[in-house]
Amino acid sequence: MRISVVALGKIGLPLAVQYASKGHDVVGVDVNPSVVASVNAGTAPFPGETGLDEKLAEVVSAGRLRATTDYAEAIPEAEAVVIVVPLFVDEEARPDWTWMDAATTSVGENLRPGTLVSYETTLPVGTTRTRWAPRLEELSGLTEGTDFHVAFSPERVLSGRIFADLRRYPKLIGGLSEAGAARATAFYEAVLDFDERTDLERPNGVWDLGSAEAAEFAKLAETTYRDVNIALANQFARFAERSGIDVYQVIEASNSQPYSHIHRPGIAVGGHCIPVYPRLYLWNDPEATVVRTAREANALMPSHAVDLLEEALGGLQGARVVVLGAAYRGGVKETAFSGVFPTVSELTDRGAVPVVHDPLYTDEELEKLGFTPYHLGEQADAVVIQADHAEYRTIGAAEIPGVRAVVDGRRISSEDAWGGVPYRVIGTAV
């Protein structure tokens, strides 16, 4: 099969490599010439994706994957086009369609009869049918459902383990027509492998949800569930703090019963997905009060962590506070909606002098993000652990001299590491 993948980012490039590894001829399209050059050299343009370096080098050297900036080179010969262009959003997660509109326009201008176009970017319900398909018809002069087919199939993978997730999770698809759904099912069955899952009610594989809208909704629903669940855990945590209870003990006990699946509390919910997709759901369903309240509750957690630190330290005015972790989660070099931003802002507003450490970022990268870099061994008054990097499991008072209070926002450290100074964990009593 001849396949084009539009946007060779942290999701798109592993997908292109996966398709090529199944023996198909893949052309990746990206607007960034340096990304294209890197891919054509068989070198991953970003670090941290398990197995990507080796798999990319193999398929490029075998001639099964190449990259270009030119849609006219990639789209006309493709039997299937997979679009994984980022959907940018503002702080309220209102969509900025600029990049996706541009990509859809370029695909439509080069579309040929018989092509399957599959959107994998997470979208508000109805977007594939009402925004993208009409645009493709208008630009190509073709009719969807007859001359070409459009489907929605959400990516469900996590950076750092994409190839494993592609095998583990069912591939959800929804077409705009029965014929389109059949084409999408056949396509994904030809490019993916699936692990056996005895825990599922039906075999792991490609699952047709019956419509593009249902597939769009499924992605929003599974991510919104996580945000709401984390918000519940965070509210339990704040009650536990006031009540002299360890919420982690409560959660472990509750989850020993098979119908309870309470998530973990923490300083922030970050990343491209969990803070964003509930807002996209609210775009469709503004009456979803539970979703809105949960999002607001999670957004307050960085401020709550700073409350705990201010109480433990006895005041923040002039205090040099180390925020450990710029990334939104451990082991991933990504700051999208990271808790570091509201945490640093809150510390600054209360008169503290925040500095930031992250083992994945250089001083120059931290400065570009607007932070003052911190180096282990320098004096500091207090610490906030924002990201659960593995390196932070062994850091303590010896590495941050002068520390007088610690707030562990991820429950990754221990009281013993900090030499007897006040050590607060979100969700536990003093």
From TrEMBL:
Keyword entries, A-Z: NAD, Oxidoreductase
Entry keyword Oxidoreductase: yes
Listed Pfam families: UDPG_MGDP_dh, UDPG_MGDP_dh_C, UDPG_MGDP_dh_N
Gene3D superfamilies listed in its UniProt record: NAD(P)-binding Rossmann-like Domain
Record bears the keyword Nucleotide-binding: no
Recorded superkingdom: Bacteria
InterPro entries xref list: 6-PGluconate_DH-like_C_sf, NAD(P)-bd_dom_sf, UDP-Glc/GDP-Man, UDP-Glc/GDP-Man_DH_C, UDP-Glc/GDP-Man_DH_C_sf, UDP-Glc/GDP-Man_DH_dimer, UDP-Glc/GDP-Man_DH_N, UDP_ManNAc/GlcNAc_DH
A Gene Ontology BP annotation from the UniProt entry: polysaccharide biosynthetic process
Ranges for domain UDP-glucose/GDP-mannose dehydrogenase C-terminal: 322-415
GO molecular function, one term: oxidoreductase activity, acting on the CH-CH group of donors, NAD or NADP as acceptor
SMART domains on file: UDPG_MGDP_dh_C
Record NCBIfam families: NDP-sugDHase
PANTHER family: UDP-N-ACETYL-D-MANNOSAMINE DEHYDROGENASE
Family classification: Belongs to the UDP-glucose/GDP-mannose dehydrogenase family.
Descriptive protein name: Nucleotide sugar dehydrogenase
Organism of provenance: Leifsonia sp. NPDC080035
Upper classification of the organism: Bacteria, Bacillati, Actinomycetota, Actinomycetes, Micrococcales
